[in-house]
Each structure stands twice: as C-alpha cells, then as structure tokens.
Amino acid sequence: MTDPRFRQLPEPVRLEDTVVSVDPEPPLDPEGGRDTDTEFVLRYN
Fold first, then answer.
1. What angle (nearest 5°) sits at the alpha carbon of residue 33, between those of residues 32 and 36?
2. Rounded to whole angstroms, how far apart are CA atoms 3 and 24?
3. Burial letters 14-27, b for 16+ CB under 10 A, else e
4. Local structure of 14: helix, strand or coil
5. Separation CA 3–CA 10 (nearest Å)
6. Does residue 2 surpass a pLDDT of 80?
7. CA–CA separation, 16 and 18 (whole Å)
8. Residue ranges under compositional bias (Basic and acidic residues) (predicted)?
9. Mean per-residue pLDDT for 6-34?
C-alpha cells in the first residue's frame, strides 16, 4: 500500500512566483591558465 502523501500531485507553481538565478561570475578556468597540451607532449614524448 502506498503512502497517501504520494497519491496526488502538489499544487502547481505560478510562473510569477518563480525566480531566475544567474551565476554572478564566470566559471574558473579548468586548466588554470596553462597549456596542458604542450605540457603533455613535453612530459610523454
């Protein structure tokens, strides 16, 4: 037997009640400003 809380959906959220969230800063550089391709070639060739 299922829990009665899960038998019906909650009330829908109105579009006016939603909030847009935007990251305030761009993501960090995953390579840290280094040229990882050149480092790879120098290390493994």
1. 85
2. 41
3. eeeeeeeeeeeeee
4. coil
5. 14
6. no
7. 6
8. 1-17
9. 87
Residue entry with tokens 């493994």: 44
Among all chains, which residue has been given the structure tokens 């109105």? 14
12's tokens: 């829908």
Please count the residues of the chain. Answer: 45
> What average pLDDT score do residues 6-15 get?
90
